[in-house]
Each structure stands twice: as structure tokens, then as C-alpha cells.
């Protein structure tokens, strides 16, 4: 299988993927330029209908972030990954950097299967992931039921009373939810009593 690199945490679809904001670090400028060139020269592996977006919200148009996965026959990465390295100095796994700098001959991939586990493990070891063990996504039907339950307990001026509130993940063992508010803040909610704690975003939230 191809080894995944450069797939990022999505604020609205939490996953084991790392957050690029936590991987910004020092690069040798010459090495960084070579890695960027290597990434841009990848072969097209898969094409998608929608474009990606910069997780730093830097103003880069989504159309320029790409809508394809690229490969060199050993690794696979999203088309927008060079932007993160070039514009935001986001670090990548050391073994990939060494591989890119060696400029080894590219090979045709034998398939399209991508192995995410090494990427997840590296991101976790680098302290770049959000710990979500025990948390699960809720389907739309369950979300509607839970929000109706919450609204029955909340005052009309409570931030979770907004119709645009979206439940991201829940943890049955502790009867808790993580919701996103219309202004982008997160709310940690304990269903019993609707006790609510607000956070500016994922990097401010820490699980108990």
C-alpha cells in the first residue's frame, strides 16, 4: 500500500489526522524548496469533485489548494500539501523528507490503497493530534434527537439553543458531546443537566 502523508484534521469531521498548526517548525530553506518541488511533481493518483482548503485560513483560494491525490509510487499526499510546507513551514516525517531529498526514481503504484496508520502514529508522536479515543460521530438522526433533548433543558439565551449548532462527536461513557457553535467556538456539553463549557477551538479543548 501507499503510505499517506499530509492529510489533515478537519474541524467539522474530527479524525486521528494531525493538525498542521502543531507541526510548524524550522526548515533548512534549500531542503524545504527541494521537498516542495518533489511534492509538486507527483503523479495523479485520484481526482475528487471538491477542492480542499488551507487549515491556516491564510486566504489561499480553495481552487488553488487542489482536488487530487498525488503519488511517487511509495507515498500518497493531497495536492495542496506543498502549500503547507512552502507557506507555513509545516514539517513532514523525517523518512519522507530523506526520501524526497534522495530523489529516488519514481515507480508506478501497484494500486490505490493508502495506509494511514504510519501517518496517524507519526502525528501522535509529534504531539499534533487531538485525542479522541472513546468519542464517536453521531448520525443526523441521532443529532436531531439529542439537540431536541438539549433544547428541552436550555434557556432561550443559551448558546446551544441556536439552530445552527452542530454536534461533532459524543462519548457515551460520560454522557458528553462536543458541538460547534455558529461563531466557530466549541462547546463541551454534559447531557445530564446540560452543563456547558465553551472553548475557542480544538487547540483549547482538552479531554478530561
Cα-based radius of gyration, to the nearest Å: 20 Å
Number of domains: 2
> Strand content of the residues, in percent?
15-25%
- Averaged pLDDT, please? 91
Low-confidence stretches: none
What topology emerges from the helices and strands here?
Elements: E1 2-4, H1 29-40, E2 43-47, E3 68-71, E4 75-78, H2 81-88, H3 94-102, E5 114-115, H4 117-125, E6 136-137, H5 140-151, E7 166-171, E8 176-180, E9 186-190, E10 195-199
Parallel strand pairs: 1-4, 1-5
Antiparallel strand pairs: 2-3, 3-4, 6-7, 7-8, 8-9, 9-10
Helix pairs in contact: 1-2
Outline the structure in words.
With about 210 residues, the chain is an alpha+beta fold. It has two domains: about 1-125, no CATH class; about 135-205, no CATH class. The protein contains five helices and ten strands, in the order E-H-E-E-E-H-H-E-H-E-H-E-E-E-E. It has helices spanning about 30-40, 80-90, 95-100, 115-125, 140-150, and strands at about 1-5, 45, 70, 75-80, 115, 135, 165-170, 175-180, 185-190, 195-200. The strands form two sheets. It has a five-stranded mixed beta sheet with strand order 2-3-4-1-5. A five-stranded antiparallel beta sheet has the order 6-7-8-9-10, with no helix packed on it. Helix 1 runs antiparallel to helix 2. The two termini are about 35 Å apart. The relative contact order is 0.17. The mean pLDDT is about 90.
Amino acid at each position: 500500500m501507499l503510505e499517506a502523508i499530509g492529510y489533515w484534521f478537519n474541524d467539522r469531521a474530527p479524525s486521528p489526522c494531525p493538525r498542521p498548526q502543531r507541526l510548524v517548525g524550522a526548515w533548512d530553506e534549500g531542503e524545504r524548496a527541494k521537498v516542495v518541488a518533489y511534492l509538486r511533481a507527483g503523479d495523479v493518483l485520484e481526482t475528487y469533485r471538491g477542492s480542499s482548503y488551507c487549515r491556516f485560513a491564510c486566504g489561499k483560494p480553495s481552487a488553488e489548494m487542489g482536488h487530487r491525490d498525488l503519488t511517487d509510487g511509495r507515498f500518497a499526499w493531497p495536492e495542496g500539501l506543498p502549500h503547507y510546507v512552502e507557506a507555513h513551514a509545516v514539517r513532514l516525517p523525517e523518512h519522507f523528507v530523506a526520501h524526497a531529498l534522495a530523489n529516488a526514481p519514481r515507480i508506478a503504484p501497484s494500486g490505490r490503497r493508502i495506509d494511514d496508520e504510519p501517518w496517524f502514529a507519526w502525528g501522535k508522536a509529534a504531539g499534533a493530534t487531538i485525542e479522541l479515543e472513546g468519542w464517536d460521530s453521531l448520525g443526523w438522526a441521532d443529532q436531531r434527537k439529542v439537540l431536541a433533548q438539549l433544547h428541552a433543558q436550555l434557556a432561550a439565551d443559551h448558546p446551544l439553543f441556536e439552530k445552527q449548532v452542530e454536534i461533532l462527536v459524543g462519548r457515551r461513557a460520560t454522557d458528553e458531546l462536543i458541538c460547534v457553535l455558529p461563531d466557530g467556538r466549541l462547546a463541551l456539553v454534559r447531557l445530564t443537566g446540560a452543563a456547558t463549557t465553551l472553548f475557542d477551538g480544538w487547540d483549547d479543548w482538552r479531554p478530561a
